[in-house]
Design a protein that fits this description.
The protein has six helices and 22 strands. It is an alpha/beta fold. It has four domains: 85 residues, Molybdopterin biosynthesis moeA protein, domain 3; 30 residues, no CATH class; 141 residues, Molybdenum Cofactor Biosythetic Enzyme, Chain A; 73 residues, Beta-clip. Helix 2 runs parallel beside helix 5. It starts with a strand and ends with a strand.
Length: 352
């Protein structure tokens, strides 16, 4: 049992009537308990976190006392039994489960483990994730792109998403629209737990990724989805390696990762919850989409008056990173829903 405030450890039965003067028989502080027994008409000065002296059953805050002499104090306000203290076992009892398997260890969990003497705990191994960006138009971030080139942003956003999900990214750089270069990079990536290739998965002349997947014996489970953005998403496996082909457009890549890759990483980590967390808000403006596909629309969400309010964010399509960077959520529009009108409730995902 310990005090949760500075004051005096007392016997509640001695506090009737109030005020009352008690003899101070000792001092208990954190790390140095008072070796006394509080008897009738007595109290013990006590500091926050200090062990409760035997015989006492409550703590009066120092603000509710008045020192009469070095050895006595006037109690100005009464307390109930167990007030101002924390009983042994109040937070968790011996043998009680305090952290469940599958939980991601957070700051409070670290403190809890340390406080219970657990310096080493078993955790799931982080999956390794190879990341390849494809395309002759790509240059590295440090380079100045020509008019027909763009910087390789996908590798950085994907690697950041991989780390946030709890895995280890292995950036393999840019693969050109060349079969030999793709083969080298994909062969290297297939050594990891998960391989992600962004770009080159559509139906264009130089979209060669699925061809190389087939050469390496990747069993493709699907190669398109009825979702916008992210339609040309590919998923398969070769042995124990999971393989994703994600669209080249940055927003499509980020959304497809959140919806498909992140849940797989959490599954491999044996996490309790693997599905994206879906919330609900009231629309402040209409949200439109192609009725033939489910849609995830970049949006601005706020919390006011006990509920979420949401509106589509200004953006110019799947390559508009500026628009996405200003959004903090994605409105989920089910397939065949068409337009969701202002005032309707809509489901959404927070972008964290």
């Amino acid at each position: 049992d310990k005090a949760i405030r500075d004051g005096f450890a007392v016997r509640v039965e001695d506090l009737d009537p109030i005020p009352v003067v008690l003899s101070v028989v000792g001092e208990s502080r954190a790390g140095l308990a008072a070796d006394v027994i509080v008897e009738r008409g007595q109290c013990c000065e006590i500091m926050t976190g200090a062990p409760l002296p035997a015989g006492s059953n409550a703590v009066v805050m120092v603000e509710n006392t008045e020192r009469v002499s070095p050895n006595s104090v006037r109690i100005l306000r009464g307390v109930r039994e167990n007030e101002g203290l924390l009983r042994r076992g109040a937070e968790a009892r011996q043998g009680e489960l305090i952290l469940r398997s599958g939980r991601r260890i957070g700051l409070a969990d670290l403190g809890l483990l340390a406080g219970n003497g657990k310096s080493t705990v078993l955790v799931s191994a982080k999956p390794s994730v190879a990341v390849i960006a494809t395309g002759d138009e790509l240059v590295e971030v440090e380079e100045t792109p020509k008019p027909d080139q763009i910087r390789n942003s996908n590798s950085y956003t994907i690697c950041a998403q991989v780390e946030e999900a709890g895995a280890r990214p292995a950036a393999l750089g840019i693969a050109r629209d060349d079969l030999d270069d793709l083969r080298r990079k994909i062969c290297q990536g297939l050594e990891e737990d998960i391989l992600i290739v962004s770009g080159g998965v559509s139906v264009g002349k130089y979209d060669l990724v699925e061809k190389v997947f087939a050469e390496f014996g990747v069993e493709v489970l699907f190669d398109k989805i009825a979702m916008k953005p992210g339609k040309p998403t590919v998923f398969g496996h070769r042995g124990q390696t999971y393989v994703f082909g994600l669209p080249g457009n940055p927003i499509s890549t980020m959304v497809a990762f959140h919806m498909f890759v992140r849940p797989l990483i959490l599954f491999l980590l044996k996490a309790e919850n693997t599905a994206p967390k879906v919330l609900e808000a009231k629309l402040e403006a209409p949200a439109k989409c192609d009725p033939e596909r489910a849609a995830l629309v970049p949006a601005l969400v706020r919390f006011d008056g006990g509920q979420y309010w949401i509106r589509p964010a200004p953006w110019k399509g799947s390559s508009d990173l500026v628009g996405l960077s200003r959004a903090n959520a994605l409105i989920m529009i089910p397939r065949r829903s068409g337009t969701l009108e202002s005032g309707q409730n809509a489901q959404f995902l927070l972008m964290e």
